[in-house]
Amino acid sequence: MVDWLSLAVPFAYLGVLLGSLATFSSLYRKRKATKAFSLEPWFPAHVQRDIYFNLLHLDPPKDSGSKEKKSPAVPESVLKAALLRRAIEDIKRVMQLRSQKQALAMLLQRGSVGDDLWQRFTRAEKEMEEEVRDVVAEANAYVPGWGQTIFQSANEMLNNDLYRERMEKEQAKLEEERKWWEKKKANTQEEFMKELDAEAANATPSRKQSESSAPAAPAAATPTTPTATSGAATPNSSTPAIKTPESSSGAPPSVAGSSDDDGVLVEADEQGKK
Amino acid sequence: MSSIDIYNPLPLHLDPTSKAITLSHPTTSTATTALATELTALNTLHRALLETPSQIPPPPLPINPKRSAQITKLRDSANAAYRKNHFGDAARLYGYAIDMALGRPGWEPVTLARDELAALYANRAQAWMSQRLWVEGLVDARCSVESKAVGNVKAWWRGGKCLVEMGRWEEAGRFVERGLEIEGRESEGGKELVGLLGEVREGLERKKRV
Acidic residues bias: where (chain A) (predicted)? Predict the structure, then answer.
């Protein structure tokens, strides 16, 4: 009896030791594996691919047997469209990978990024290779020879989409620009009217007082502007002076939202009349 | 097998009559709205594919001549309206032609659409400008040079002119200079661009003095 007991102690010791080592090793390995597996994928979920596979496996929800026989779950044309969408997304991703590869390799060489990132990248690359091969195989299964052109078509579609999007964005600016322009037109008109009112206010009292002194009044009210601009503005002031009324709304560049300029125009107009 | 066969299940539903794919439980979270837009794109593509032989996109070349002919017809009638000084009609017709060109199926070569639309946008810009609608003209001219930067002097000039008319001198200067860089001073329309640039500089000077 005593013999058995003394023997059990070393065995128990060994058992505990080996057991703990085994658990440690298995835990460690499991954790490492999950870590490698749980490396964040390079790309977000491939929605188009998910849709395609879902459609492939979509079962008709009604369990009336007669209907099931009549039509397969999803018509082939829908699957073809889904495959094409998938190819477009693939092209986007492959292009992204291609453009990122060089920069990433350089960063890795310099030690600026960790190994994890590179591992994720290579995994994404491998996955995309497989994905492209799969798409080509599927395309050939639908129509023999489509595999050769599906990515060509997808590329054109992608470029066309990008182009349309840009055009839409440009056209969308129209509203904003138009609003800006309306505001500016209104502003210049208002300023112009104000100037005109000011001129009128200046002119009327002097006219009331004595009609002979009226011609001098506007010039005296703004003595600096005519002299400062008279030399420079004469070459073009003659034309705007004639067509001021329409051109004020049609061609505000000459007015340019500055009151002084308006003053000159009005001045020239007044002088032209007299 | 490998991860290639793994996919995320999605709640899709096939409408038996229209063959449109929809979500079976429409909700309004952001993930499902993205999915819904993708499904709409899929359904549009599906409808477009139904009209093609064997329901796959034909190779990019040769192009189906029907749409090109329609666009040409619309453009010709728009040109005729412009020549008769019916600028509003011309702009509207150019608009139809533009819509038609934008509606080209996606698998047709993008360069074709670009060339066509560059010309149409430039023409519509001219039609807007004849009605003194500078904003519309500017937007169309911008679209035109976006579509095709090289060999598009007219659009560069029209865009610059619209900016000049609106008194946006700095922008006009930048725009015309970019056009000159791309077109070159020696080209056919280069001289006109140089002339416009001179006008812009004059305008800038005038603005500064004031």
Answer: 259-274
Are B144 and B125 in contact, with CB atoms under 8 Å apart? yes
Distance from C-alpha of A72 to C-alpha of A89, rounded to nearest angstrom: 27
Pick the closest to residue B16 from A28, A58, A214 (CA basis): A58
Residues A76/A77/A82/A84 CA torsion (nearest 10 deg): 120
ipTM of the complex, rounded to two decimals: 0.75
Q: What is the pLDDT of residues A178-208, one digit of tens each?
A: 888 888 778 888 888 888 888 777 766 554 4
Residues of A in contact with B56 (CB under 8 A): 80, 84, 139, 142-143, 146, 150
CA distance B143 to chain A (A): 6
- Give the residue-averaged pLDDT of B25-30: 62
- Which has the closest alpha carbon to A79: B14, B108, B4? B14
Instruction: Identify whether A235 is preceded by a cis peptide bond (ω within 30 of 0).
Output: no
CA-to-CA dists, residue A245 to A187, A235, B72, angstroms: 15, 19, 41
Q: Tell me if B164 sits within 8 A of B199, measured CB to CB.
A: yes
CA nearest neighbour of B77 among B54, B100, B57: B100
Is B210 within 8 Å of chain A by CB? Answer: yes
Q: Which domains does chain B have, with CATH numbers?
A: 65-136 (1.20.58), 149-209 (1.25.40)
Residue A111 parent element (H or E): none
In B23-64, where does DSSP find H-type helix?
30-50
Residue-range domain boundaries for chain A: 11-40, 42-59+73-171
The model scores a pTM over 0.80: no
Q: Per the CB < 8 Å rule, is B21 touching A257?
A: no
Burial class (CB in 10 A: 0-12, 13-18, 19+), B36: middle
Cβ(B186)–Cβ(B169) under 8 Å? no
Quick: pLDDT tens for B68-106.
888 888 888 888 888 888 777 888 888 888 888 787 777
Pick A149's closest partner by Cβ from B59, B114, B143: B59
Shortest Cα distance from B4 to chain A (angstroms)? 7
CB of B36 within 8 Å of any CB in chain A? no
Q: Are B19 and A78 in contact (CB under 8 A)?
A: yes
CA A6 to chain centre: 78
